[in-house]
Amino acid sequence: MKFLPYLYAMVFLLLTVILSIAVGAVSIPLADIWRVLTNRPPQVVTQAATIILALRLPRTALVLLTGAALGGSGAAYQGLFRNPLADPYLIGVASGAGLGAVLAMNAHWPYTFWGLLAVPGAAFLGALLTVLLVYSLARIGKTVPTTNLILAGVAFSSFATALTSFLMLRSTGELRQAIAWLLGGSTQAGWGPVLTILPYLAIGMGILLLSGHALNLLQFGDDQAQQLGLPVMRTRALILLAASLATAAAVSFSGIIGFIGLIVPHVMRLWFGADYRRLVPLSLLGGAAALLLSDVLARVVIAPQELPLGIVTALFGVPFFLWVLRRSKNQGYW
Amino acid sequence: MLKIENLTVFYGARRVLQDVSLEVQSGQVLALIGPNGAGKSTLVRAVSGVIPAQAGKVQVDGANLLALPAMQRARYLAVVPQAVAMPPAFSAWETVLLGRTPYLNFLGQISEKDEQIARLALQRVDALDLAERRVGELSGGEQQRVLLARALAQSTPILLLDEPTVHLDLQHQVNLMETVCSLAHSDHLAVLVALHDLNLAAIYADRVALLVAGEVKAAGTAREVLTPELISAAYHLPVRVVAHPFADAPWVLPDSN
C-alpha cells in the first residue's frame, strides 16, 4: 500500500521509456528493441541498432533526466515557498539559467568536453544569481513574502528573457540553434549532453530526495519549523541551491520547457497526498514520464517534422492539468 | 526549570525586550500578561530561538538554549503556536509526528517508539479520534489541541504557549487551560503561557508576570500582580479587582463608570 504510488509511477515511466525508444521517424518493433538491448555489441549492425544506440537511447536518457529535474525541483519550489504557483519558471530561475547558457554559447566555447561543460555551468550560475537576486529583492527584513518573491521573479524573468533575445539577435551563426534550444528541444545528439549534466543532476536531485521531511516542516512556517528543530535558514538555502542546480542542468541542454515543474507536483499531490517525503520522489518519476511522453508526441504529431518540446508540454499538459484540477476541486488539497 | 536571564531584544533600533528575567519552576504554570505590543510574542520567539537576542540567556538544566543548535534546543523546549494558517493537507497524526523531529535522522524516519509517543500525546489532549482528520478541516479548538499534542510529542521539560486561547470560544479556552495545567502538574513541566485574558491567568496560572513595553513590571502570585494599581497603569484603563465569586482568585473588571 505504501509503495503502490511508486509502483504506478515506475510502471508508467517504464512504458514511456519503451515508447520513447520505439516511436519516431522509424518505428521499431518491441522485439527488435529487446534484441538490440540484450545483444550488445550487436553482431550485425542493423539499422535498428544504430537508431536505438546512437539516437533514441541518449535522447531518451536526456529527456528522462530533464523531466525528473523539472518535476522534482518544481515540487521543492512549491514546498519552499509554500505557494502552489511556484515553479522553476515563475520565479525566474529558468530565465536566468537561459540567459547564462546563451551567454556561454555566445562565448564560442570549443566543442569539447570542457566546452560542453561550460554551458550548463553558465546556466547554473545564471540560475543561482537569479535566485539570490530575486530572493534579496523580495526580502523585507527577515521575511520573504511570497507575493514579493513572485513579483520580483516575474519581473526579473522578463528582463532576463529580453536580454537573452537581444543576445540572440546580435549573434549571427548560432541564432537558429539558440532559438530551437530556447523553445525546448534537444539539438545535440549523443551521450555528451547526458554525461555533462549527470553530475549536476545527481547532486541536485540527491539533496532534493533527502529534503522531504524538511519540506514537510516548512509547510508550518519558518517559526514552527525552527521550533521543531529545523535549522531553517541553512535548510532553505540548501534546498534552494539543489533545486536551482537541477533546474539549471535541465535547462542547459533542453531549453525552457514549461509546465512540467508546475503540473507534475500538483497532479502527484492530488493523487498521492502532500507528504513531501513521497511527493518529491514521485514528482521526479512523474516529471520524467510526463516529459518522455511529451517528447514522443513531439515526434509524431507533425511527423516527419518535430515540434519543440516546450510547445508540447503546454499544449497537452495544461488541458490535462485543468481536467485533473476540475475533477478534484472539492478536496482542497493545497 | 526555565530561567530567563536579562533577555534584551531589538527590532532594528527599537528595543522590544529590556532586561527580561523570569523563572518558571518545573510543575508550574507562569502566565505572561500584558497589553498588545508589550512583547509577549516577542519573548516567546526569542526564548525559542526564532529571533536573535542581543543579550541574555535562557537556561534549562544548566544549558544555555540560545547557544544551542535548533535541533538540540527543540529537545529542551517546545512551543504551541496560535492555530492560524495550518497547512490543510496534513493529517493530525502526521502533524503530531512532526513533534518527533528533534529525535529523528535527517530523513525523518519514524520509529515505533516515536509513534507510541505521538499516540500518547494525542491521548493526553483527548484528540486521538482526530488522528486521521486533516488539520485544515478541524475547528480552532481541535487544531489547538493537535498543536499541543505536537509540542508534547517533543518530550521537552519546557513548554511555551503563545496566546493559545485567542481564537477559541469560552468552552475551548477553559478546556485548553485545564489540560495545560494538569499536564504541567502531572508531568512536571515548566509552562510559560502568554495570555490575553487576565481572568484566565488569575484562575489557572500558578504565577503571573506582567510585561509592559518590553519590561517585567511585576511577577508573583495572581493576587500580587493583578492589583488595581499595576493593571490600571499597564493598560491605561481604570480597573477594579474584586474577589472571584467562587474561585480562589482575583477578578479584574474594567471600571467604566
Could you please describe the fold and organization of this structure?
The complex is a heterodimer of chains A (about 325) and B (about 260). By secondary structure, chain A is mainly α. Chain A has a single domain (about 5-325), classed as ABC transporter involved in vitamin B12 uptake, BtuC. Chain A has 14 helices and no strands. Chain A has helices at about 5-20, 30-40, 45-80, 95-105, 115-140, 145-170, 175-180, 190-210, 210-220, 220-225, 230-255, 260-270, 275-300, 310-325. The longest helix of chain A has about 35 residues, at about 45-80. Chain A is globular. The relative contact order of chain A is 0.16. Chain B is of the alpha/beta class and about 260 residues long. Chain B has one domain: P-loop containing nucleotide triphosphate hydrolases (Rossmann fold), CATH 3.40.50. Chain B has nine helices and twelve strands. Chain B has helices at about 40-45, 70-75, 90-95, 110-125, 140-155, 170-185, 200-205, 220-225, 230-235; strands spanning about 1-10, 15-25, 30-35, 55-60, 65, 75-80, 160, 190-195, 205-210, 215-220, 240-245, 250-255. In chain B, the strands form three sheets. Chain B has a six-stranded mixed sheet with strand order 6-7-8-3-9-10, sandwiched between helices. In chain B, strand 11 and strand 12 (about 250-255) form a beta hairpin. In chain B, helix 4 crosses helix 5 (about 140-155). Chain B is globular, with a radius of gyration of 18 Å. Chain B starts with a strand and ends with a strand. The chains are: A mainly alpha (about 325), B alpha/beta (about 260). The interface of A and B includes residues 210, 223, 274 and 275 of A.
